[in-house]
Write a structure and sequence with these properties.
Blueprint: H1 2-30
Length: about 80
């Protein structure tokens, strides 16, 4: 008797989980997706002292690039 009750509870939990998953999928499918923004027509301005490469801390000069073929590790 207890086994049958346990199977009924497990089946009800599984059915509830399937129903919730179905409702979430339906809600996500109905949500309109916005179009991606257009690319800017002009490139960003070239400001003096503005660096878009490697970052450095305040007051430091930009780090020099490692020579080709090096791993950047000390021997």
């Amino acid at each position: 008797m207890l086994v049958i009750f346990a199977l009924i509870v497990i089946a009800a939990a599984a059915a509830g989980a399937i129903y919730v998953r179905y409702r979430v999928d339906q809600a996500a499918a109905d949500c309109p997706m916005p179009a991606p923004p257009d690319k800017p027509a002009t490139p960003p301005p070239n400001l003096p002292g503005f660096q878009t490469g490697d970052a450095c801390g305040p007051g430091e000069s930009p780090r020099a690039a490692a020579p080709p073929g090096s791993t950047g590790k000390k021997p």
